[in-house]
Design a protein that fits this description.
The protein has one domain. It is built from six helices and two strands. It has a two-stranded antiparallel sheet with strand order 1-2. By secondary structure, the chain is mainly α. The longest helix is centred in the last third of the chain and has 59 residues. β1 and β2 form a beta hairpin. α5 runs antiparallel to α6.
């Protein structure tokens, strides 16, 4: 637990840039490279653990940071929260606009990869949502057609019974 706290603290203090942490206590020295992938995964994990109030505060903090400096990292931090954050702060349309506005020449490889992944995820969710809506419409039409056919069947059954009552001698 203590090592994890130190590692997280080092990430925050380093401005979340790739760095190497060395630990020499114990029988074997440990060297850990903290790269962008680790940073982004840790960032996402921390978001998942926040309450709704904390999420909204974090969203405002990230918006303000983006307004002050539209660097690729601040843009991506805001887009990550909007794209993959919990439902109370999720706004995939805004996230997609942020991702499409990312200056790929200024972003590092990890940021470009994450941006591409988030953009693809949002576009696939949009496609899936549209497909689900289309299938719901077809289902509603099919259910209406089934009801109409059942009504017609009931009418035909009633007509047939009336004909049989007329034909049957009493």
């Amino acid at each position: 637990m203590n090592k994890r706290l130190i590692l997280i603290t080092m990430m925050v203090l380093s401005g979340c840039q790739p760095m190497t942490v060395q630990h020499s206590k114990g029988p074997v020295p440990v060297t850990v490279r903290v790269d962008d992938a680790t940073y982004w995964l840790e960032e996402w994990q921390q978001l998942r653990e926040l309450s709704d109030k904390q999420l909204k505060e974090e969203l405002e903090i990230r918006r303000q940071a983006f307004i002050r400096s539209a660097e690729p990292r601040t843009r991506l931090r805001l887009a990550l929260l909007l794209a993959a954050g919990p439902g109370s702060v999720r706004n995939q349309d805004k996230a997609l606009k942020l991702l499409k506005g990312l200056d790929m020449d200024r972003a590092d490889a990890g940021a470009r990869a994450l941006a591409a992944l988030l953009q693809q995820n949002i576009e696939e969710q949009d496609w899936s949502g549209a497909k689900i809506d289309e299938l719901r419409d077809k289902l509603a039409q099919s259910e209406a057609r089934v009801e109409e056919l059942e009504r017609q069947l009931q009418e035909l059954t009633t007509i047939e019974q009336n004909i049989q009552q007329r034909v049957t001698p009493q």
